[in-house]
Write a structure and sequence with these properties.
alpha+beta, Arc Repressor Mutant, subunit A, two-stranded parallel ribbon, globular
Length: 186
């Protein structure tokens, strides 16, 4: 059986997300209600989750995007991550909860991956964390939108809306105040 997909609609600029669900847990997120045509090779042959687990993931993601859930309590399948990427993403997943943010540099320091970097070169760890956030296959579930620059929002690759999706998610979580035209959940 191929990987299962849970799809959830959301207000713009998010538009919606699809989550790949395997027997091990949520494995990947695509910022589109339609699952991507090309599935990463590691997931193409992964056993898909049963209907109950897939529905659980869909329900919890929908509740989060509607402002009614702060924590996901389904398992995460880390198979699309490895090495420093996995270590940093797991540190983010563990340490930075709903409504909180961390800078790229703070996450680099907190992950332990860059402990051997000379103090004058710490910027390199922050830059590497930025690249890891850009390659996060589990965006939203492993909340890379909560990682910000020391002087502003920083970047975000979430869907076609980019940094506006990040701004919307941080507004949903109460980190940023809503603007008059914010179209979040009622």
């Amino acid at each position: 059986m191929a990987v299962s997909w849970a799809s959830v609609e959301a207000p713009e600029p998010v538009g919606g997300v699809s989550v790949a669900v395997t027997t091990a847990g949520a494995a990947a997120v695509a910022f589109s209600v339609q699952p991507p045509a090309e599935v990463p090779a590691l997931l193409a042959s992964a056993p898909g989750a049963d209907a109950e687990r897939t529905a659980l993931v869909a329900r919890q993601v929908a509740e989060y995007l509607a402002g009614r859930r702060r924590v996901f309590d389904f398992p995460v399948d880390w198979s699309l991550t490895s090495g420093a990427q996995r270590t940093v993403l797991q540190a983010l997943h563990r340490a930075v909860g709903y409504g909180r943010t961390v800078t790229y540099g703070e996450l680099a320091a907190g992950s332990g991956v860059y402990d051997g970097v000379a103090p004058g070169e710490r910027w390199a760890g922050a830059r590497s964390v930025g690249q890891i956030m850009g390659s996060n296959p589990l965006a939203l579930i492993v909340p890379c939108h909560r990682v910000v620059a020391s002087d502003g929002l920083g970047g975000f690759g979430g869907g076609y809306g980019g940094v506006e999706v990040k701004r919307w998610l941080l507004t949903l979580e109460g980190v940023l105040p809503p603007t008059l035209d914010w179209n979040g959940p009622a």
